[in-house]
Write a structure and sequence with these properties.
With 318 residues, the protein is an alpha+beta fold. The protein has helices at residues 5-26, 30-52, 66-73, 79-98, 113-151, 161-174, 189-196, 198-215, 239-255, 281-297, 310-316; strands spanning 179-186, 221-226, 229-235, 258-259, 265-266, 270-276, 303-305. The chain has two domains: 5-151, no CATH class; 161-316, Reverse transcriptase/Diguanylate cyclase domain (Alpha-Beta Plaits). A five-stranded mixed beta sheet has the order 2-3-1-6-7, with helices on both faces. A two-stranded antiparallel ribbon has the order 4-5. A hairpin with a 5-residue loop joins strand 4 and strand 5 (265-266). The chain is elongated. It comes from Shewanella inventionis. It catalyses: 2 GTP = 3',3'-c-di-GMP + 2 diphosphate.
Length: 318
């Protein structure tokens, strides 16, 4: 273009290099894309301002954009990354102002300064748009990670109490389908921790969670409330079906042998309380807990359905 074919080719190569940043994004390498784009931009303006043209061309001033771009494109990076980019930019501008040699490869045509700045400005806009995209992706990924951490039990990798309680509140208000709450507590679990150690106890909780996950109906919400206590929310129209699910879970836990860190085999059992979910999710959970305590009182390793009416619970509340 305009008789500067080598320069046009060099510009095209830099455009291709910028485009490769989007390929990094497509394959899930966000940070690679960020560094690739920033280093390409730095190299681009350094070559143009120190080798191709002299300082009067003004390409060195585009280097300033790399400093804010580094914060946008690398939001989670160490402060030293941003500091190093800032230092590189300032050194680059200093070198460009001083000049590496007396004669540049091309005499910059002052008549085309506006056109040149317009072209470089377009490349700069592309770079900043990529920076914003990278920043948004990093923020979305961080938010998703925080959401997952706030809703998932770290040990068993199933939903936690917070997620379960918010879910039953949602179902109690918004669904017309019949649901039942199953509250489950492992029997004499403290003895397992005392006899075999907490590492074995943690393994037992993981195995119990996996065992339950394998047998519960599809769509059942299963969560760890804390310690050795779990809860399920099952969608079914029949009380007998809910009790049957609880019985199946109880039998699966009782017949599944566990192994200590020293290779000893042992078993654990569970007591389960069942109650129907109503629009008053808090009282429904209380009924399920009450049924669980009754199962414990009846000798453990059994299922009890909460037969009492919600109004009775409300009346007995302090």
């Amino acid at each position: 273009m305009l008789g500067y074919y080598p320069l046009a080719l060099l510009t095209a190569l830099f455009c291709i290099s910028y485009g490769l940043s989007f390929i990094w994004i497509k394959i899930g390498k966000a940070y690679y894309a960020s560094y690739h784009c920033l280093i390409t931009a730095f190299t681009h303006f350094m070559i143009y301002s120190t080798v191709i043209f002299d300082r009067n061309a003004g390409f060195q001033w585009f280097l300033i954009a790399i400093i804010p771009a580094s914060f946008l494109m690398l939001p989670n990076a160490s402060r030293w990354h941003h500091f190093m980019f800032a230092v590189a930019v300032m050194l680059g501008m200093t070198v460009s102002e001083i000049g590496l040699h007396y004669e540049p490869l091309f005499d910059f045509p002052t008549d085309y300064r506006t056109v040149s700045i317009f072209i470089e400005g377009i490349l700069l806009v592309i770079t900043l748009n990529l920076a914003m995209e990278m920043s948004n992706k990093a923020i979305d990924k961080y938010r998703a990670k925080l959401t997952t951490l706030s809703q998932k039990d770290e040990l068993t990798q199933i939903p936690n109490r917070r997620f379960f309680m918010s879910s039953i509140k949602h179902y109690a208000i918004n669904t017309k389908q019949t649901h039942f709450i199953l509250t489950l507590d492992l029997d004499h679990f403290k003895k397992i921790n005392d006899q075999y150690g907490h590492a074995t106890g943690d393994d037992a909780l993981i195995h119990v969670a996996n065992t339950i996950n394998q047998i519960i109906p599809k769509g059942t919400l299963f969560a760890r409330l804390g310690g050795e206590e779990f809860a399920l929310l099952c969608q079914t129209d029949f009380k007998k079906h809910a009790i049957a699910i609880a019985e199946e879970i109880k039998e699966a836990i009782a017949t599944h042998h566990l192994t200590s860190t020293e290779g000893e085999h042992f078993y654990c059992t569970a007591s389960i309380g069942v109650a129907q979910l109503t629009q008053n999710d808090s009282l429904s959970m209380q009924l399920s807990d009450k049924a669980l305590y009754q199962a414990k009182a009846q000798g453990r390793n059994c299922v009890v359905f909460a037969e009492h009416d919600i109004k009775e619970v409300e009346t007995n509340e302090p």
